[in-house]
Amino acid sequence: MRTRCLSWMMILLILFSCAGIISRSFHEDDSRGIFEDQLDDDAFIDKSMSTGYELKDGYATIKFEESSSRYTPERVFYRENAFPIYLAWGFIGPDNPTEKELIDKSSLTSLDNISFRTNGSLWFFVPSQHFIFKVDQKKETVSAITLSWFGSFNGDRIKIYAWDYDALSGRGMWKFQGEIERGENNLAIGGSKPCRFVSGDGRVDILVMPALNLGGVSYISTDYVSIDVKGVAKANATLVTKTLEPGNLWRWEFVEWNGYQDEHSSIKVQVLDSNGRVLEDIEGNDEGFEGRIIPLNDLSGISGIRLRFYMETTNPPHRPMLSWYRILWLREDRWRDDFATNYRIEEKSDKEIISKTIFLPKGYWWDRFEARADLHGGNITFSILDGSGKEIISNIEGRSFTTHDISQICTRSIKLKAEIEKKGTSPPEIREWIVTFSREDTKPIITAPSIIYLGIDDVKSKRIDVEVSCRDEDPGICAESGRYRLEYTDNVTGLRYYSRWLHAIINETNCSKRAKMVAHDISIFYNDSLKDILPINKRLNLTLSGIDFMVRDMAGNENRTDSIDVVIDTEPPASRITTDVEEIGYKHGYETIEISADATDDVS
Questions:
Q1: CA-CA distances (angstroms) from residue 455 to 61, 100, 125, 318?
Q2: What whole-number distance in Å separates Cα of residue 570 and Cα of residue 127?
Q3: Is residue 564 left, alpha or beta, with left meaning phi > 0 and alpha meaning psi from -120 to 50?
Q4: Residue 84 and residue 16: Cα distance in Å, rounded?
Q5: How crowded is residue 81: how many other Cβ atoms within 10 Å of its Cβ?
Q6: Backbone torsions φ then ψ of 508, nearest 5 degrees
Q7: Of 244, 311, 291, whose CA–CA distance to 63 is shortest?
Q8: What is the DSSP string of 60-115?
Q9: Is the dihedral of CA 474, 475, 476, 478 positive or negative?
Q10: Counting Cβ atoms within 10 Å, is residue 370 exposed (0-12), middle (13-18) or buried (19+)?
Q11: Distance between CA 563 and CA 120 in Å, rounded?
């Protein structure tokens, strides 16, 4: 009996374990270098590092947190005789010069049976009361407005209008919101878009008037009025994954993600190490990526990575939605796809297949393209495209085993293309295609001075250009990779400030063996534009004191200069003639003579 019970317990444990595995939204295929998370649950989300998110309808998105505040009128105006037909006044406002202002508003802030009454004087007019509220929520974050009104009137109801600040292309107009009948006190303002009824500086305008009283003149008396405004207190979220650490890893390949965002919302992605630090080897990673594919080919020596998704909206209820993400990696020192999945396929039809972008690993160069196929009497023609889809090698004849040298191409990313022609009963079938790499880890060389001296003309112009030379024999310089960084010294405190890496101009094409790299239009002294590139927020007494350069070759190998000192030298050298001129005049006639002089310069 005990053995039977233990057997049932083991079966239940196995079932529960399998159920847990099946219910996970992420899938890892280490044999093909693929990880995907469909975000049906947050099993692969690190909750300790994530904030403000929720999973909703198969998406990760911002979990809105609402705040609510109550406001009483800041100003109150009234009219004794307003025309009851809306078209007569619906486009006039929100300020109306025919209104009178109520100075003492204290009776309206509490239910105390002390009312503010406005009487009409003619039966075919109605009185109106105009309440102006000032709210401290941002217009775009307002999610609900509710009017509370307590008072009395003759007739069976009062009509409520609110000024729509977004109507008529921003000119605005009064819009009818509804009616409050006897015994009612509350009314929602703005429907599903209450933010339209809030101005850019937080003003809300409510107009209250009784229905026309055919039995005599109308009146309205307000004892208490307020609005409750709900706003989104949190309009962003951070979602950080757990660490992905594949069992077989040669190089990381790319991150891919998909989701929804509009002009009011955004998603940015950063790649982190296993401890949650931003990986600086990936250019642009500090600011985050908005593109749907993020190359990881510059990463090396990193065994585990995380992803951080930052979601933000500037106009709730618009919010971004992340639907899934993938991470791909290479298990060996080549790129390979056996078509078991479509994760490395961009386009596929009966006649054509195009791979997703293949990114060159850092420190390697293109070697060969290989493919294995069953032709079945048909034809396959292969092509090599650059990362943008432009053909760079064409008409590679497909065979059962195809190989082609691609070492002469000049690009850091390629795509593979296959055109398929069926001739027999079965179409040709590609079993796998492969790209191999060769080691290329020699750094480019930068030739630069150790000191740059600035003369009086440089100081007068306040700006300089600095040029250095670079070379790389194989595979050549990457023309887009030139960067420089500036050092400024505070002349008062001696503190040094460093800029971020800035783009340097290389007026050569990719794979050039020789090139000039120019840092253009550098400020020698402080000006306000330096606030955009230095970690400063105020005016300082700064002088340019150093610069360093960085460049990569097409294989991704990077080299930097040591810091180049910048020294201002506006004093001419001191000199004096050492030869006795008088003695020369006595001893020589018309002949060639030699005069000697000494010169000294303490700076340059």
A1: 57, 71, 83, 57
A2: 80
A3: beta
A4: 70
A5: 17
A6: -140, 165
A7: 311
A8: EEE--EEEEEEE--SEEEEEEEE-SSGGGTTTS-SS-TT-EEES--GGGSS-SS--
A9: negative
A10: middle
A11: 82
531 three-state secondary structure: helix
CA distances from 459 to 66, 495, 523, 525, 530 (A): 56, 21, 10, 9, 17
User: Does the structure show a pLDDT above 90 at 15?
Assistant: no
Nearest CA to 446 out of 520, 498, 516 is that of: 516
Output the CA torsion sign for 521, 522, 523, 528: positive
Cβ-based neighbours of 462, under 8 Å, separated by 6 or more: 523, 524, 525, 527
Distance from C-alpha of 365 to C-alpha of 444, rounded to nearest angstrom: 14
pLDDT of residue 416: 98
Report the run of H or E that residue 456 belongs to, with start and end: helix 456-461
Tell me the residue length of the chain: 604
Separation between Cα atoms, residue 98 and residue 457, nearest integer Å? 67
Computed over every residue of the chain, the mean pLDDT equals: 90
Tens digits of per-residue pLDDT, 138-171? 888 898 999 999 999 987 889 999 999 999 999 9
Q: What is the mean pLDDT of residues 483-500?
A: 97
- Closest to 566 measured CA to CA, from 522, 518, 516, 520: 522
Cis peptide before 320 (omega within 30 of 0): no
pLDDT tens, residue by residue, 62-102: 998 888 999 999 999 999 988 887 777 889 889 999 999 99
CA 480 to chain CA centroid, nearest Å:
21
Domains plus CATH for the chain? 24-58+236-330 (2.60.120), 68-234 (2.60.120), 334-439 (2.60.120), 445-568 (2.60.40)
Residue with tokens 């691609």: 406
- 369: tokens are 């393209």
